[in-house]
């Protein structure tokens, strides 16, 4: 339990370091060629995190080590060299964050929490019976924002296009840090219900080529009589979760 607690602390620090690096670059003027000049500070912070995380991680082979004594300061480097070193610090911190998440089962935990959150709150966020899936998508995005999630950082909407067998599919939401795509379906009539299972099965085949986890949110206007039967075969596919929210 202590090691899990420490891993979570290190994960929070790695996430904060990445945010600080993004802010450092984004807050500079677009034409400032020296905006990567803080590279050595970030390399030092990354190296400190790796040193603390090393005893708790199973595999360190994906991480680079840096001898900071041999890394020149920003007065002794050119702008392209500074960017290269900054990118090394950033990319290695991304890998470290991924290793920490994998060690503590972060993606599985967060996916489970997100599923419970949507299941418990989506109905309360929709006041009138929706006529389109976009209305349900909007309600989910409102819940994301209320949960403190940031578009472009914690989630994206209608990105991550996948092409299979000549067909192009675009998930309604993508949560890249969880390797998760989220699709919304609206069951508003018996006729529509008949095609939903086929649609979801087609999506599962397409998205499984790119995402480890898939979450299908089916908003039911009163057409699904047996929720467990509806979900059973769909959830037999690896990494697939289906939740049904009744209006």
Tell me what you see in this structure:
With 247 residues, the protein is α/β, with parallel strands linked by helices. It has 2 domains: 2-104; 106-246, Trna Endonuclease, Chain: A, domain 1 (3-Layer(aba) Sandwich). The protein has helices at 2-26, 39-53, 79-104, 106-125, 133-146, 190-207, 227-232; strands spanning 156-157, 162-164, 167-169, 173-175, 180-187, 213-220, 240-246. The chain has a 5-stranded mixed beta sheet with strand order 1-4-5-6-7, with helices on both faces. A two-stranded antiparallel sheet has the order 2-3. Helix 2 (39-53) runs parallel beside helix 3 (79-104). It is elongated and about 70 Å long. The model has no long low-confidence stretch (mean pLDDT 91).
Query: What is the name of the CATH architecture of the largest domain?
Result: 3-Layer(aba) Sandwich
- For the residues shown, what is the average pLDDT? 91
Q: Name the CATH class of the largest domain.
A: Alpha Beta
> Tell me about the biggest sheet?
5 strands, mixed
Instruction: Note the total helix count.
Output: 7
Strand order of the largest sheet: 1-4-5-6-7
The name CATH uses for the topology of the largest domain is Trna Endonuclease, Chain: A, domain 1
β-strand percent reads 5-15%
* Strands, total number: 7
SSE topology string: HHHHHEEEEEHEHE
Question: How many whole angstroms does the radius of gyration measure?
Answer: 22 Å
Which residue ranges are poorly predicted, with pLDDT under 50 across at least 5 consecutive positions? none
Shape label: elongated
Helix content estimate: 40-55%
Helix- and strand-based class?
alpha/beta
Number of domains: 2
Distance, first to last CA: 40 Å
């Amino acid at each position: 339990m202590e090691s899990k607690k420490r891993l979570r602390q290190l994960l929070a620090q790695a996430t904060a370091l990445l945010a600080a690096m993004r802010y450092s670059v984004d807050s500079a003027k677009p034409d400032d060629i020296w905006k990567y000049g803080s590279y050595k500070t970030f390399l030092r912070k990354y190296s400190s995190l790796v040193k603390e995380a090393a005893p708790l991680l199973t595999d360190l082979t994906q991480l680079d080590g840096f001898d900071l004594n041999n890394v020149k300061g920003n007065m002794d480097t050119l702008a392209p060299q500074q960017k290269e070193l900054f990118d090394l610090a950033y990319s290695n911190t991304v890998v470290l964050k991924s290793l920490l998440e994998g060690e503590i089962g972060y993606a599985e935990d967060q996916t489970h929490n997100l599923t419970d959150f949507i299941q418990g709150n989506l109905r309360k966020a929709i006041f009138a019976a929706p006529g389109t899936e976009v209305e349900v998508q909007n309600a989910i995005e409102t819940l994301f924002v209320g949960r403190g999630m940031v578009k472009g950082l914690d989630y994206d909407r209608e990105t991550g296009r996948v092409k299979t067998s000549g067909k192009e599919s675009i998930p309604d939401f993508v949560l890249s840090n969880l390797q998760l795509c989220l699709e919304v379906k609206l069951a508003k009539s018996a006729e529509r219900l008949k095609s939903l299972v086929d649609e979801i099965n087609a999506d599962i085949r397409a998205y499984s080529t790119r995402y480890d986890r898939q979450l299908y949110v089916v908003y039911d206007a009163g057409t699904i009589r047996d929720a467990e039967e509806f979900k059973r075969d769909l959830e037999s596919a690896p990494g697939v979760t289906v939740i049904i929210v009744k209006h």
